[in-house]
Write a structure and sequence with these properties.
By secondary structure, the protein is mainly α. About 50% of the residues lie in helices and about 5% in strands. It has one domain: Glycosyltransferase (Alpha/alpha barrel), CATH 1.50.10.
Length: about 375
């Protein structure tokens, strides 16, 4: 595999993008939404910043600054952001604000960080202390939210807060205790603490099946959060490393031996309609390689992560009219709300969602995995 073509693919993504019309935000394009702060752009900004740190090429930091500058106003308010929705997804792009503040010294980025941290302070919680995924989803914990909120929360504690990680560890621990299937060694997508949602099991509160990208979000959330812990937090870090190690070791069995990727519903290999999915595979590939590099898991997972990355390239990285495209990306999936009973967490639901090319929920993690591959 000539990995240099990926650099050309990344350049195409940024060359064809304006801040108010990112080429990778397929979901917003399809729905005709106005430009607004969102987690999808956040995935891309995070991965591009890592590329910048690795290459030192000014074009990357200039692009990130220009892009985020469009969304953050001088008073720290953010285009399209409404704190009162208490939507964890909106915290994800906040990660890059720390980097931009450090790189540019623009005070508005620091003010925007503080605005987003107000959401952390006011976010509704379950009886276990876990953040609700969104205000419109009372008492619901989704794996996605651990990535969206906890990495930002960790960075804040390390760089601007009191380096108190107890709440962060507690939330990861509750997910492990309540959402992890120890026989299948997989996490369920959602958990309703109140056990009242239509998609939730009335005894456990868990959703009906496993969704690859949610597991991917969780693994990336764990490895990224751990990497931002201050070195003094020895016990807190050790607890999360143990959870991460068990999570990654459990996933090895679900790598398809032929395609070398993971399935959209990971425990249903070979079931009709199931397919090898890019975004979740890229996230787990990244988590495996980064975890091995930092010593959180056995070194063999560096090779396994590369194997999954190569599987994605071989199956879904294609050329059309001289342009590279990344396919096999599930556009979106979720649970509810009550007026959307189709999103019920079943196998049939997860395989019914559209599969697209070049959406940042896939391209962002793909580029993230590429940054780890370059460090092997």
């Amino acid at each position: 595999m000539d990995y240099s073509v990926i650099d050309k693919y990344i350049d195409r993504l940024i060359e064809d993008t304006a801040p108010d019309a990112p080429i990778w935000n397929i979901e917003n394009i399809k729905q005709g939404k106005k430009p607004a702060w969102n987690y999808i752009d956040g995935c891309m900004m995070t991965s591009l910043y890592t590329i910048y740190r690795q290459t030192g090429l000014k074009k990357y930091i200039d692009f990130i600054d220009k892009f985020v500058d469009y969304y953050v106003f001088e008073d720290g308010s953010i285009r399209g952001y409404d704190l009162e929705t208490y939507n964890l997804d909106n915290l994800n792009e906040g990660r890059v604000l720390f980097d931009l503040y450090s790189e540019t010294g623009k005070e508005k980025y620091k003010k925007a960080i503080e605005l987003l941290y107000k959401q952390i302070l006011g976010q509704p919680r379950t009886g276990t202390g876990n953040f609700w995924h969104k205000k419109i989803y009372p008492n619901q914990v989704w794996l996605d939210g651990l990535y969206m909120a906890q990495v930002f929360y960790t960075r804040y504690q390390t760089e601007l807060g009191g380096k108190d990680y107890s709440d962060i560890v507690k939330q990861f621990r509750a997910v492990y205790d309540n959402m992890y299937d120890r026989q299948k060694r997989l996490y369920y997508h959602g958990w309703d603490w109140s056990k009242t949602a239509f998609w939730a099991d009335k005894t456990t509160g868990l959703s009906k099946s496993f969704w690859l990208r949610s597991v991917g979000w969780y693994t990336v959330g764990l490895v990224d959060a751990i990497s931002y812990f201050d070195n003094s937090a020895i016990e807190a870090k050790a607890e999360l490393v143990n959870i991460f190690r068990e999570t990654i070791e459990g996933l090895e069995q679900y790598i398809d031996p032929v395609g070398h990727m993971f399935y959209q519903v990971p425990d249903q290999m070979g079931r009709e309609g199931n397919y090898l999915e890019t975004s979740g595979s890229a996230m787990i590939s990244y988590a495996m390689m980064k975890g091995a590099r930092l010593g959180y898991v056995d070194k063999k997972f560096a090779a396994l992560g590369k194997e999954v990355f190569d599987g994605i390239c071989n199956k879904y990285l294609t050329t059309t009219d001289g342009k590279l495209n990344l396919g096999g990306i599930c556009l979106v999936a979720g649970l509810g709300p009550e007026n959307n009973p189709r999103r019920n967490g079943t196998f049939e639901y997860y395989i019914s969602e559209p599969v697209v090319e070049n959406d940042a929920k896939g391209t962002g993690p793909f580029v993230m995995a590429y940054t780890e591959l370059k460090q092997l």
